[in-house]
Amino acid sequence: MKPHEFWQDIHAPGSFDLAGPHSGSFPVTLDDGRQLRLPIRPLADGEHALASLIVNQASFPVVEALAGNLAAKLKPFDIDVIVGLPTLGLTLAAEVARHLGHSRYVPLGTSRKFWYLDELSVPMSSITTQQQKRLYIDPRMLPLLEGKRVALVDDVISSGTSIIAGLSLLAASNIEPVVIGAAMLQSDRWQEKLASFGEQWTGRVQRVFQTPMLKKGGDGWHS
Fold first, then answer.
1. What is the pLDDT of residue 51?
2. pLDDT confidence of residue 1
3. DSSP class per residue in 115-155
4. How buried is 167 (Cβ within 10 angstroms: 0-12 exposed, 13-18 middle, 19+ buried)?
């Protein structure tokens, strides 16, 4: 597949072999059996790789499918407000909120507006951009969250760094999400870090699908 062709189509059930070996792409399966192909990104050691998802490059039908699936998993938690993590998580969070029948969502941000408060911000690092930023919440949005059942949504949980930043920022406002949602759990590297932040958090994670750490073999990538 060419790079721009990824994340554009949802394929019929059984279109791709899950067992591997895999070359160039890794298939994942949604709850209804349909499949999505993700590009494989080799890691620096040359021996391992991860499947990748960039939601804001996906076609509208793919985003719709992912958001609808995640919304169905969050619905039993009786969510009042969706909070979205920047930047890619905002695309998914908005659509999940719409699927849940909400008229709006609350986006967190990394761009400081002059009315933001420094005490309502936390450091945030990005695996994909390799940048150090600060994560902010607009203080005017706090009345929407206080006393509400909140879900924190990101597109991908990889190392767990972004989710922990979001949880830390909400905790500074005495807000504890009842659930964490993501389209993709990228391997299980995040579990230990999230558990160290609080034992309850790993059990609150809902996802559309999970992908493994891939290992290089003579005939391709193996899960």
1. 97
2. 85
3. T--GGGEEEEE-TTT--EEEEE--GGGHHHHTTS-EEEEEE
4. buried
